[in-house]
Amino acid sequence: MKLPFAENYRIKMVEPIYRSTREERENWIRQADYNLFNLRSNQVYIDLLTDSGTGAMSDRQWAAVMTGDESYAGSSSFFNLKDRVKQLFGFDYLLPVHQGRAAENVLFSVLVKEGNVVPGNSHFDTTKGHIEFRKAQAIDCTIDEAFDTTVYHPFKGNIDLNKLQLVLESYPKEQIPMIIVTVTCNSSGGQPVSMNNLRQVKQLADTYGIPVVFDSARFAENAWFIQQREEGYADKSIKEIVAEMYSYADGMTMSSKKDGIVNIGGLLAMRSKEWFDQASVYNIMYEGFLTYGGMSGRDMNALAVGLDEATEADYLEARISQVHYLGNQLIEAGIPVQQPLGGHAVFVEARRFLPAVPREEYVAQTLAVELYLEAGVRGVEVGTLLADRDPVTHENRYPSTEYLRLAIPRRTYTNNHIDVVAAGLINLYERRDQITHGFTIEHEAPIMRHFTVGLKKID
Questions:
Q1: Which of 175, 223, 271, 434 is buried most, with the most CB atoms less than 10 Å from its CB?
Q2: How far apart are alpha carbons 365 and 358 in whole angstroms?
């Protein structure tokens, strides 16, 4: 008998979670204005809202926490992290920040001006928010296959080179501060970018003299997909693949709460001394001194270890296998999901799941609320609410795909928990024809509204 696959870790500590009743959940979600962000954590049974900062740290990471150097300047923990960043990514200049959006804030304060355009592959919500806050424009150049969940493409995070070239030809160089490549591409379903595409994007960018920046929250998962799916990389280690990936970048932003496997932290790294000197001013203003930024010494130590662990094949196989364990159950039940399955989450296509709910009534949010009511599972909408309003017309932007994202924290839940998630969605799918209405907006913020929006149920 062939031995089954098992995780490459064992559990040392457990945390109790409360299994609520449907009546309790109906009351809680109503009090939360049908916004899952407003729920308290103890009102959630299985929390798949995000994989950001919600994973479990290893014994090596906790040991590193105990030796953190909290010196205000010149912390040894900073140099531990700086050395790890140099080893993995090849960048000489590092600025620690408290999380990924802080790295964007610091870098974009240097590079992005009013009237600029920033092409990329389905910019993440905070990335687009920081661009549009500066009265610039994010232009999505993702391949068309990314927006059709029924089409197979091994690298749906790829940038369409023709779309990108059209942008580079249509605007003067001075108006394009950078090209952003998100690895993996969260907004298109946790989809990877191929090494060949990274190489070609860099070659095209160099032709026009435009720098390339990687949004690196899930860089290790991207490297795993390259190893598994791209010809010529099966025999290369994850660390070797990461080194080549970042040879095609001029800088990187990173929320370390994902593939850094820490609960808080981020970084901004680059090759350019000029960028570093300019960004340092903003980092001191917004985050803290250069050798701690927005992080404590103990967190920098844990991150240095986490970056090492996240780029080991055994860890990545266990992590991504659990995501695919959920996705494959849903596929077998006929539930429409983004395929091929991505790295950090399963993306359920809400409009095909709930065809009777009008898109004006926020169909992905409707599905997210229904799953919470059914099973106590908290996911998140990646659809019209997240797409926000057009900054000029102030009308809703309706994306081509409306997703319920089920993001799985690293080393946190067992497959028994995953079975509950699958059962809850399958139950909903079997009675999907009974769900015909969603929500209207009662109040919303002018930017990144999905975090704080208040909704009213349409009966």
A1: 223
A2: 12
